[in-house]
From TrEMBL:
One of its GO terms (molecular function) is protein phosphatase regulator activity. One of its GO terms (cellular component) is protein phosphatase type 2A complex. PANTHER family: PROTEIN PHOSPHATASE PP2A REGULATORY SUBUNIT B. It comes from Buteo japonicus. The keyword Nucleotide-binding does not apply. Keywords: Repeat, WD repeat. This is Serine/threonine-protein phosphatase 2A 55 kDa regulatory subunit B.
Amino acid sequence: ITRSGGGSSLGCEGSVLCHAVPCRAVLHPDIISTVEFNHTGELLATGDKGGRVVIFQREQESKNQPHRRGEYNVYSTFQSHEPEFDYLKSLEIEEKINKIRWLPQQNAAYFLLSTNDKTVKLWKVSERDKRPEGYNLKDEDGRLRDPSMITMLRVPVLRPMDLMVEATPRRVFANAHTYHINSISVNSDYETYMSADDLRINLWNFEITNQSFNIVDIKPANMEELTEVITAAEFHPHHCNTFVYSSSKGTIRLCDMRTSALCDRHAKFFEEPEDPSNRSFFSEIISSISDVKFSHSGRYIMTRDYLTVKVWDLNMENRPIETYQVHDYLRSKLCSLYENDCIFDKFECVWNGSDSVIMTGSYNNFFRMFDRNTKRDVTLEASRENSKPRAILKPRKVCVGGKRRKDEISVDSLDFSKKILHTAWHPSENIIAVAATNNLYIFQDKVN
């Protein structure tokens, strides 16, 4: 168990003053593979390559310790997926958690979906602080009593006990994907969700585990004619009939489930025409979209490709309304990034609660923030060396030319093994979670 922390976010005025809040994080030898706040922001779930889910709970603010506001501590840890072996195809199925999605809270318990490459599971996380005592047929240790010794009827009573958090699997949705699942998304009707792999998207009902409906299938009759794969998919936040999915060709398709049962024909098609002057050997690889997210308002779509983040208006398909350069200085390094496979890294992107700021990751444990109103951007670093609890994060700069200022870092000295692929933003406050390999950092705005 370690204690890591740091601080950040662009405030309402685009302020880049960043202060840290401590976070007690569990360090596994395995790398964090997904991060997700629940709908209130009180809980934060992480999944890792070892198939484990760790849930953090936010500390309640107290008058005695107001500085601890925002601190997240371990709430529950459980093994979600185990390694498996497909004997028919002679394939190992990793236990790595690809995605976690929370369901809105309906009662005292919490529910979340977690998936590895093949199987989606619905988990119930609940608290228990009382235990029943005084059974008739069992003694207090749970052993069965001799029926001939039972001479009177007892009424069991509930006794207080230490708080225990239990995670139990309620549904297992398996055997529906031939290829690796890359996305799951809960519908706004909260009765259905979808899971997407490289070539197909399936629609599930939460109550039915043995049957799903295939709503998108882009697999060609001859696999040699395959030109693109599905990279991410998400439901519209308000309209239960609408969803989008992105492709490795840099295109986004918006589908309407009211038109037909099989949504192979899209309702809208978003694609930016390529600039012929920028055409290179790597153009197709770097144009592949690694993440797609609806804004909270439902009006915009955000996509992340290798070098940029783009914001699209649902009413304009021919080009994005905003394009943000994440690390344009890497354009000259694409050859070496291709050789070390970094060019295939899948970076995620997130909105803040008001859709005014965008966050996404980069290399050297840098992450970037773009204020859509002021057009200001900032580069921050999540590392244990410079992120002591309650420290102010200093903006970082990368220089491309020969001359380097004192506070700048050269593009040639960037560490490509340190990368921020997974981030999450609190739904209503300026609190963010950043996964840097096997460290989890939680940052927030300056707290007065």
